[in-house]
Amino acid sequence: MRILTKNQSRNIDSISIEKYKISQNSLMIAAANSIVSHIENYSSSIYKKPKLLFICGKGNNGADSICAANILYEKKYNLHLHFLIDKDKISGPSKLYYQKYINLSSHISFGSKLKIFDGYDLLIDGILGTGFRGVLGKELIDWIDWINESSMHVISVDIPSGLNSDNGLAFPTAIKAKDTITFGYSKLGLHLANGKDYCGNIFVKDIGFPKPVLDEIDDIECKLFNDKEIDHILTKVPTNTYKQDRGKVLIIAGSIGMTGAAVLSTYGALRSGSGVTITVCPSSLNNIFEKYILEGMTFPCEDNGKGYLGIRNYDALMEKVEWADSLVIGPGLGMNKDTIELISKLINSINKPIVLDADGLSCFSKLNGSLDNIIITPHLGEFSKIIKMERSIIINDFIDVIKNFINQFNCVALIKHVPACIAHDNRLSLNSSGNSGLSTAGSGDVLSGMIASFIAQKINNYDACRLASFFHGKAADRLLNEKGHRGIIASDLPLEISRVIKEYEN
C-alpha cells in the first residue's frame, strides 16, 4: 500500500487539479461523502441517529468536515458545528459550505477558547490537517485534552489533529481517534512513531485522484508492507530440493558473556528455511555453542582462551566464506580492538551478501568501495552513530534523514524504528506487523539470521529484509496473546516464526 509524505500529498492535490482538471470542489465532495458513509456504517448498528459534534479549523480537512456536516444535516442528523476561528476568518473552500450550513441550521458556534459540549455520541475532528508542523498552542491543547477525556467516539479527518504527517510525532499531544479517515492514500505519519497510538483504525478512501499522478511525484516511494505482497516474494520449495539448495548461512557472532546472540541468530536462520548454517565461535566457547546449536554446525577458531575472535582468524574465516551464500557478522562479537580489526578486514574483503548487525555496525565507517552487498540493521541509537546525527533529529526529520542516507549510501538499511523501516534505492518500506514485545534483548539477533536466510534462498536483499521484518513482527503479534507485551523473550520467536511462515508458503 502506497504511503505519502506531506509534500507528496500536497503535490497529488495540485497535479490533479492543475493538470488533470479535477476540481477542488469535486475532491471535497468525495471526501465529505466518505466521511458521511463511514458515520452511517458505524452508527447503523449502534444508534438510530447519533448526535454529532463537528470541531473544525480553517484548513482543507475543516472544509471537508463542513461539507460532510451539510450532507448529514440534510439527512436529518442531529448535529452541531463548532469553528475554532471567528466567522469573519472563514475563507476559501470552507466559506461556501459554511454559508450553506447557516442557511440550514442554527446549530453553530465559534471561538478558540474551550467550550464544553455534552450529550454527543460522535465527534468529527477537522481541526488540523496534514499541513500541521509545529507546536500546539495552549487553547488547542485544552480542546484536544477535553476531546481525549470525553466518552465520544472520535473520527479524525485525514489525520488526527496535532499529529505530524511526516514523522508521526505529537507536539506535545494529539487527538486519540477511534477511526481515522484519510483520503486518496495513507500518510506517513499515521504509521510512524506515535501514529498507531493516535490513529485508531485507519480507513483509506478513494476520492478520485487520477492513477497516473503517482508516477509524476519525483520523490521517495514509501509503501506499507503487508501480507498481500508475500506471494510475489516467497516461492515454493521444490519437492526434490537438497539442504544445500535451501541456502548456506555463515554466522560470525558471539563472544564470552554473549554466546546467546550467536545461538539466537543461528535459529533465526534455521527457522526461516536455511538448509545449512555454520556458526563461527572462539574455540574456548565451542562447548557452549554445540550444546545449544543442535541442528547447525559450529566452526571453532583459536582464541588462546580469551573468548573472542581476532585478526588471527582472518584466513580461516575466508575459507568458510567461500562456502556460504550469505553471512551474518556482528551479534555479540564484542568491541575488542582485535575483533574490530577482524570485522573491518572481513567486510572489505567479502563480495557476498553480509548482514551487518550489532557490534558489526561499528565498522560501517570503515567500509570501502561499493556497498551493494551490505545490509545494515541498526536501532535508532546505532543509526545515529553511523550517520553522526542526534537521535532526536533523526526522529523529528525522519523522512529527510532517510532520503539523504539513501542518496549517500547504496546499501540496504533496516532501521529498527517504530515500525521497522527498510530503505534502499529511493524506496522506503514500512513494516505493518510487530509490537512492543520485540523490545527485548536478542530480538534483533533473531532478525539478522532471518534476513541472511532469505537472502541465501535467493531473495534479493531489499525483499529479504521486508519479508524477515514482517514475519518477525507477525510472530511477536501471535505471541502477544500468550505472553503479553512484557513476557515475550527472544527465544520464543524462532519456533513461532516457522509457524507464521508455514501459513504463507505456496
What is the fold-level CATH name, i.e. the topology of the largest domain?
A: UDP-N-acetylmuramoyl-L-alanine:D-glutamate ligase
Task: Determine and state the CATH class of the largest domain.
Answer: Alpha Beta
Secondary structure: helix percent: 25-40%
Summarize model confidence as the mean pLDDT: 94
Main sheet strand line-up: 8-1-10-19-18-17-16-15-14-11-12-13
How many helices does DSSP assign? 16
Distance between the termini: 22 Å
Total of domains: 2
Structural class by sheet pairing and helices: alpha/beta
Q: What does the largest sheet look like? A: 12 strands, mixed
Indicate the proportion of strand residues: 15-25%
The CATH superfamily of the largest domain appears as: Ribokinase
Number of strands: 19
Low-confidence stretches: none
CATH architecture of the largest domain: 3-Layer(aba) Sandwich
- What is the general shape? elongated
Query: Any idea what the radius of gyration is?
Result: 27 Å
3D structure, described in words:
With 506 residues, the chain is of the alpha/beta class. The protein has helices at residues 6-18, 24-43, 60-74, 93-104, 138-149, 195-199, 259-271, 286-292, 314-323, 337-347, 380-387, 391-396, 398-408, 443-456, 461-487, 493-504; strands at 2-4, 52-56, 79-83, 108-110, 122-126, 153-157, 179-183, 186-187, 201-205, 221-225, 248-252, 276-282, 297-301, 326-329, 354-356, 374-376, 412-415, 421-424, 427-431. It has 16 helices and 19 strands. The strands form two sheets. The protein has a twelve-stranded mixed sheet with strand order 8-1-10-19-18-17-16-15-14-11-12-13, with helices on both faces. It has a seven-stranded parallel sheet with strand order 4-3-2-5-6-7-9, with helices on one face. α7 (259-271) runs parallel beside α16 and α15 (461-487) crosses α16 (493-504).
